[in-house]
Amino acid sequence: MKMNLVKLGMAVLCLALGLKTFAQQKLTLPDSNNYIINDSVLIKTKYGITLSAVVVRKKGMPQKLPAALLYFIYSNTNRSLMEAKYAADHGYIGIVADARGKRLSPDMPAPYEHEAKDVNAVIDWIVNQSWSDGRVGMYGGSYSGFAQWAAAKYLHPALKTIVPYVAAIPGLGLPMENNVFLNANYQWAFYITNNKYTDDVVNNDHTRWRKMRNNWWESGAAYNKIDSIDGTPNPWLQKWLSHPDYDTYWQSMVPYGRDFKRINIPVLSITGYYDDGQVSALEYLREHYKYNPSAEHYLIIGPYDHFGSQIGGAAKLRGYEVDSIALINTREITFQWFDYILKGGKKPALLKDKINFEVMGANKWKHAPSLAKMEDYHIRFYLDSAENGMMLSEQKPAKEIFMHQQVDLADRTRFYNDYYPDPIIKKEIDRSNGLFFITKPFNQAVSVSGELRGQLKAIINKKDMDVGLILYEVTPSGEYFQLSYYLGRASYAYDMRRRNLLKPGKLESIPFYRSRVFSKQLQKGSRLLLVLNIDKNPFAQINYGTGKDVSTESIKDAGTPLKIEWSTQSFIALGFSVNAKSLF
Questions:
Q1: In this structure, are residues 475 and 523 in contact, taking their beta carbons and an 8 Å threshold?
Q2: Which pTM value belongs to this model?
Q3: Measured between alpha carbons, how far is 82 from 377 in angstroms, rounded to an integer?
């Protein structure tokens, strides 16, 4: 069965600032007539590691300036020079530092594990240079966004601000999302560790990775055997699979818990509604405000994907004609922000409040003090079973009813949970499996914004399951506009650090909130459709529900089909611009 998830298999969640990003921004190389260029800087740390960097300074500038630092794992000298030149052209010392083991570093690459120390070593080096005024701002996307937060875990006094775009959290957004390991990024470890730069041949071998996924799916082998099916050992994957909890291994890489309380520098985060790694970017924001309510942390979010967020969007995204007002220039805003923080300049005009978001379909930006206040009214919709079908009802059912679903986990003829939003607007959706809940038509145009959150209640015959939710606007013309989705493992719903197995035959509650935040103006006559399903396809681990480590389970563990009784006390909660009485 063909699924839109095939597009997910080709996605690389971590590729920050790729070549097309540079082409779209029309960045150019610096010349020695106008710039002081050093592309072979070696930074020897106090703990024996050597990192490399490029530094670009514009001639005729003041002797001492603040530095704009990008920390990069996708090493490419020309890319780095173009990026550093852009910073120099905006009145900063432009510095692009390479991750451990990359470009000129003689050490071994170690993705994620040492940035909290290594980035701060680079900052130490910067502030000891004759051209440094002692202040550093960091920026960049995906891995470079992660590196900024890693540095902030042990905040250097010279680091004055960070501007992370689509920032990754290892162990939360990738290689697993809500404790479910994904295949979309399988080849990434080879891509960035096979040599000192990037192994583009391996990364772009889509036929190889598609074959591997499909062969693993059809074989029914355990997930921890997937590299043997490919034929090349993947030691980084195996290491990550040994940490299915969000344990101290992952927690050591970025700020965790009370670490956020100590982060008192201004932050500007940028992400998109269709950014594959959005759950990570927004987790940083939520946790920052949770532990430091007075934080100066701003967010820009709009109809962008992972790459689009890093440049400011594209006029057409996966078939959707993006509102013209949504198109911004991420780099320009970044350096306006640096000027605001480091030079006393004006705050970027778009930042009218802490949360700044574009309302798709309305062609306007809105502004709110928090994610929870993106809309004025929060409305619950219950997953109800009525005579005329399954409904999303704003009224809590008077009587609890259970709706049956059965999934044969050994069956390889059907995929379950077609959640990936490509295209964003669909003429039809797969209705061969899953449960479908729909609202009544709205009697007026109304905006809905925020995260898809709520609580599922169910009785199952196994000890665990992986759950998928997809939210659509069904337009009056019958098209399906995908708004949000959620993927997560039920046994980690309360605590991603510790697995709490479900008890077969017992009614269990499964809260969820780490979904995709969005904002959309719904048409008059539109309805909301929620698809509830079990995640079973070639693009992620298969949870057979035995309670064992999911990576060790195989088709031999499938046993009897998974039987679920979904309660009508289950609900989702969404933010609206009007109250419930005005919707229908």
A1: yes
A2: 0.96
A3: 46
